[in-house]
Amino acid sequence: MKRVLIVEDEGELAQLMRRAFEADGMAADIAGSAEEAYDLLTSAVFDCLMVDVNLPGDDGYALCRNLRERSGVPVVFASARIEPDARIRALEEGGDAYLSKPFSLREMLAQAKALMMRPERKTGTDEAVLSAGPFQLDGRAKTIRKNGQLIALSPREFQLASALMGSAGQSLSRDALLAKVWGAFAEVEPQTVSVHMSWLRAKLEDDPAHPVYFKTVRGEGYRFDLPEGNR
């Protein structure tokens, strides 16, 4: 299930937005300030952020700027500011789209879903069933099978496998994996990824000391590969 973070200090509007996302089959959390958003982003992973520009404390631009140092998650700005410079600044700060208040909830949903469907934004498998070599990963059931046998993984191990398999052939840095699996502002050490990778390999690789699928890329991070003949 897709998960959206609504960063909006107008409580009534935030609730309307949340109900619209939930009615469309998505989960939605609300933060009334950038500081509340930072807290949520330390322990949860979101597929899209809806961010008001005018917030108490850090404004929406500062939130997006800080987020972009850690994550490429789509950000949709929403603001009553209609001047062209506001739209330009939203893009310059790393935003992906800009909605002028008042906006329709249908437009909001369409914009968010379009961004989440962009190939460069899709990470992991979410609700998809992905078959790769001996593995079959079910994003909805949160299960993975190897050669038809169900393998028990912890939630973090599953999310790590999902992130790597969903970006097969692409190297992902430890920082990128921390943002995708633990949260953009998670206060954990990069070594945490290495530890979970070792656990994942112990469960999914025939020879964990010499991994065939979940590989280390020296100086870059990790990558899921399929050897020739298994593709």
Describe the model.
This protein is of the alpha/beta class. The protein is 36% helix and 20% strand. The protein has 2 domains: 3-116, Rossmann fold (3-Layer(aba) Sandwich); 129-224, Winged helix-like DNA-binding domain superfamily/Winged helix DNA-binding domain (Arc Repressor Mutant, subunit A, Orthogonal Bundle). The chain is built from 8 helices and 11 strands. A hairpin with a 2-residue loop joins β8 and β9 (149-151). The relative contact order is 0.11. The modification 4-aspartylphosphate is found at residue 52. Residues 127-226 form the OmpR/PhoB-type domain. GO terms for molecular function: phosphorelay response regulator activity; transcription cis-regulatory region binding. Keywords: DNA-binding, Phosphoprotein, Two-component regulatory system.
Compact description:
The chain has 231 residues and is α/β, with parallel strands linked by helices. Helix content is 36%, strand content 20%. It has two domains: 3-116, Rossmann fold, CATH 3.40.50; 129-224, Arc Repressor Mutant, subunit A (Orthogonal Bundle), CATH 1.10.10.10.
